[in-house]
Amino acid sequence: MGFLFNLLRHPLTQGMDVDHPDTTVRRRSVIRGKPFLCRLYREWYDLVRQAIPGGAGDVVELGSGAGFMKEVIPGLITTEVLPLEGIDVRIPSEGTLPFADRSLRAIVMTDVLHHIGDPRKFFREASRTVRAGGAIVMIEPWVTSWSKWVYAKLHSEPFRPDSAEWEFPDRGPLSAANGALPWIIFARDRALFEREFPEWRVGRISPMMPVAYLLSGGVSMRSLCPGWAYGFCRFFERMLQRAGIRAAMFAWIVLERRPGSPEGSA
Question: What is the CATH architecture assignment of 2-257?
C-alpha cells in the first residue's frame, strides 16, 4: 500500500511541508493541471454561489489558497492566513476577521472549517460580521461508514469522529485538522451548536460525492480519471443517491443568519 501511495503522489507537491506557502502555490498548478479535479471544484463553487443570499454586503471567501472561486463568483473577497500573492485580505493568525460589524452578506469556504482549531471563535466572528439574512456556505468532509474508511486509510489528515471536543491544537494552518469536525458540529452536536449560536439556522446539509474526489486524486495525488469522465462519475453518484445508498465523502452546508437575531455571545 505504501509503495502504491508513493507511486500515485503528485510530483509537484511530493515531500513538501503542507504549511509552507509554496505548497499552496504549487497546489494551484495541480488543480489547474487536472481537468477532472478542476471540474469538481467548479461544481463546488457553483453550489456555493447558488446559496449566497442577495442584497447588500460583501461576500468573503476564507482559505482562498489554491482555488479559483473568484472566477465563478465575481466581486468575491479572497482571504488567507498564509502570505500569498493574489489574495485580497490577509487574516491574522489569531483568527479575527478584519471586517466591520454586519458588513458581510456571506462567508464562503471549501475544505476550511475542519482546519479551524477554535471553531467557536470563528462562529462568534461570523455572527459579528455577517448581517441578518446573510449566510455561511461551505463544502466540507462528512462522516459516513464509507468516508470513515476512506479518510482513515487513504488520507493524511486526522479524521476523528469520536473527538469529545470541537477544538484541537494549532500545529499549522493546514496540518492541524479534524476532518470529522463539520459532522461533529452540525450532526452529532447539532443541538449544542443551536443552543450556543441561536442566531444561526442550519438551512441545508446535503451529503454528496462518495467517489468523485477520490478518483480526482485531490491536491496531493495523481488523477485516476481523465476530465471527460467527470460527467459519467457524477451521474453514477446521483444514481447511488436515488437508490438510497447513503455513501458520501463531503457535504454542502448552508447556515442562515436569522433576521433580527442578536450577535452571538457564546
Answer: 3-Layer(aba) Sandwich (3.40)
